[in-house]
Specification:
Layout: H1 3-8, H2 16-20, H3 27-35, E1 40-41, E2 48-57, E3 61-64, H4 65-69, H5 76-83, E4 87-90, H6 96-111, E5 120-124, H7 135-143, E6 149-153, H8 159-172, E7 178-186, H9 196-199, E8 204-214, E9 219-226, E10 234-235, E11 256-257, H10 259-280, E12 290-293, H11 298-308, H12 319-322, H13 329-339, E13 348-355, E14 359-366
Parallel strand pairs: 5-6, 5-7, 12-13
Antiparallel strand pairs: 1-9, 2-8, 3-4, 7-8, 9-14, 10-11, 13-14
The structure holds oxa(dethia)-CoA (UT7).
Amino acid sequence: MHRAKARERGKPKVSGAALRDEGKQTEEQAERHCGIKGSINYGRNGVKTRIIGTGSCLPGTVVTNDDLSKVMDTSDEWISSRTGIRERHLVKEETTASMSVEAAKRAMKDAGVTAEEIDLIILGTVSADFVTPACACEVQAAIGATNAVAFDINAACAGFMFALNIANAYIQAGIYRTALILGAETLSKIVDWEDRSTCVLFGDGAGAAVVRGDEQYGLLAFDQGSDGTKGDVLACPGRTNNNPLIQTDQRLGFVHMDGQEVYKFAVTTVPASLQKTIETAGLMPKDIDYFALHQANIRILQSVSKRLHIGEDKFPISLDHCGNISAASVPILLDEMNRKGLLKPGMKVALSGFGGGLTWASAVLEW
Ligand code: UT7
């Protein structure tokens, strides 16, 4: 879609029942997360940060739940009933950078923006191909964005949302005008394929958006937070100390997650953060046309919809065919909504990302 068109437009186990009754003990925590610091309302200086183009890229190989059940002790019934996930895309030749480049090109085409016009590239990822250079720098080189400053950020599943808010801060400050923001992951290389409780959940892919200052539509409000005290509930170790003083047996770690703790965090903090952001934007939940949330588990989306008293039809889904792609989930979902023609100019859209760190971020924008 061209810009002109775009502008138109490890803890104790609990039972499943206990999980459905989830979150009660973390209500207080959610209140602490989202009830004290106010969300920030944007656009008062006359310029709003607007998404003017989207793009995404999924690797070519689709792996269904049945495919997984042939190589590990799992089943389509368990995965789809617990999560809503039916299949995911996994890389073979693709890399985090190659998928990012493709998503970036598609977003630039959709926005009608040339590489030279991009001032800033921010890429959220926990699975870049290199420690250095940043994946954002690889994207910059590949698309020829010679005028851009480029860097990666690690905010796990909230990475794209954090990137959006950083770009917004630069645009609001008048430092940069046009930014390319991305969420991109090759999670299949950091999950433990011998841990069936996590590996079935994740997928690979990249999503991108071009954002620019706009006088009419754009970001209305934002809320974000972190709780490092809960970092161990969703973690992936990096390299351990190793030097001539301490010679260790270097072993790379893999993702491990206490799913129920993350679940409880998500179903309390996310609705509280969304509620706060919507209020800051001067709106009510019923005024929101779509809720485009991080795609971790359909039960989380259903719980948020219930807590906000909003029908599930306002919560579009991509997790059924993508699985959880951490930082890439929100931009891929947005791009799918954009390409389906669901998004019209001025529509109110709420976004939210949440996950490792712990981190979370919500936004309300006019499309
Ligand atoms: O992106 C960051 C945000 N992430 C999230 O939001 C994830 C949030 N958490 C969740 O979505 C859920 O906690 C999960 C989907 C990860 C797990 O659901 P659960 O209802 O909490 O399942 P569980 O971990 O309690 O496992 C229940 C049973 C266990 O068997 P026993 O001990 O009851 O006999 C597991 O061993 O299911 C078993 N199990 C599996 N069985 C078949 C675990 N994984 C599998 C599997 N296939 N893949």
